Amino acid sequence: ETGVTQTPRHLVMGMTNKKSLKCEQHLGHNAMYWYKQSAKKPLELMFVYNFKEQTENNSVPSRFSPECPNSSHLFLHLHTLQPEDSALYLCASSQVVQGELFFGEGSRLTVL
Amino acid sequence: GENVEQHPSTLSVQEGDSAVIKCTYSDSASNYFPWYKQELGKGPQLIIDIRSNVGEKKDQRIAVTLNKTAKHFSLHITETQPEDSAVYFCAASRGSQGNLIFGKGTKLSVKP
To answer: DSSP class of residue A110?
Structure first.
């Protein structure tokens, strides 16, 4: 148990669907992140939030829309995704930006 | 920007043997080098890290070495056990001044 909880753990969606991934951290951290993990590729940083403010958008397509209502919760809203977006999406948090990362177990997304 | 290369991509060892995973980085300003372990179905977890002001750090059976001149760092696991089987990721960053850039990962299998 890392203190970072992601739901759902598995999600299958069609290209025209709209869905959301949720992340909650119980560690009192100030920074939260979304990473994409694809087979045989390095972990790709997507978004960084520090004290609820987005500080990094790593050239992510607009079909991925993050939301951070408070320092404990982070969402990733998904719409009109492509099959190549199928991957494991990992949420992480840290006490300070770029400090030690605590990862959730990920949401496995399959886009049909 | 920073680029991190990690080798080998897969490594199989006999229980009790040592395992070594190597990474190189390109940004000479990088000063923080963590290693993460990802077990099946879980998110990555920090196991050890090193900063550029030291050349070696050890924690029980795990050690990391850093050669700043050559821009490479290595993870050493001694007396391997089956529970060490996982995917290991190296990463590099400029600390609070930059994002963590991850290697592609090494899948370590320890055979009993």
So the answer is: E
Residues 6+ positions from A59 with CB-CB distance below 8 Å:
none
Which residue is closest to B44 within chain A, CA to CA? A103
Indicate the pLDDT class of residue A20, thresholds 50, 70 and 90.
very high
Contacts of B34 (CB under 8 A, 6+ apart): A100, B46, B48, B49, B50, B90, B91, B100
Task: Evaluate the CA torsion angle A24, A28, A31, A35 in order and state its sign.
Answer: negative
First-to-final CA distance of chain A: 31
Chain B, 36-95: which have a CB under 8 Å from a chain A CB? Answer: 36, 41-46, 49, 89, 93, 95
pLDDT digits (tens, 9 = 90+) for B63-90: 999 999 999 999 999 999 999 999 999 9
- For chain A, helix (H) and strand (E) counts, in that order, are 0, 11
Q: What is the mean pLDDT of chain B?
A: 94
CB B72 within 8 Å of CB B7: no
Q: Tens digits of per-residue pLDDT, B20-44? A: 999 999 999 999 999 999 999 899 9
